[in-house]
Specification:
mainly alpha, single chain, 6 helices, 10% strand
Length: 144
């Protein structure tokens, strides 16, 4: 059975995602963080206000227990802190600690350089078109 463009698109998208993350992980290896931990830090840095553990888990797209283990290790490293939420005793806000800031700046610098390299020669209009296609596919997946 010959592969259709839709088959190839899905395979290529998965390969690109894996390759991009693997290359970023390779470049970030010197920082002493696993892919899961630097991903949590980046997501956490993008919140305007400290999120709850549940909000952060949704943002990173991991299950609560998985995030809890990651936060344990980040807390041990002094990079994040859990704070009680007055309105809900079960909830915890996740706050970045001062030592995390320069680390996040390094992660962002390395990620920005990789993006420059990856998107070299790609027209902005093509990127916009790809994003519209991806949004449609994601919306269709949410309907499933």
């Amino acid at each position: 059975m010959p592969l259709t463009d839709q088959h190839r698109f899905g395979m290529q998208l998965a390969q690109m995602s894996r390759g991009w993350r693997a290359e970023l992980d390779r470049r970030l290896a010197g920082l002493g963080l696993s892919q899961a931990r630097w991903l949590v830090l980046l997501h956490l840095a993008r919140f305007e206000q400290a999120p709850t553990q549940r909000e952060l888990a949704q943002s990173v797209a991991v299950e609560g227990p998985t995030l809890a283990r990651l936060l344990d290790s980040l807390e041990t490293q002094g990079l994040v802190q859990r704070q009680a939420v007055a309105e809900d005793r079960r909830a915890k806000k996740i706050v970045l600690c001062a030592p995390a800031r320069p680390l996040i700046e390094q992660i962002e610098t390395i990620a920005t350089q990789l993006r420059r390299e990856v998107f070299e020669g790609v027209d902005e209009a093509d990127i916009s078109l790809c994003m519209r296609v991806h949004e449609t596919i994601l919306a269709n997946l949410e309907k499933s």
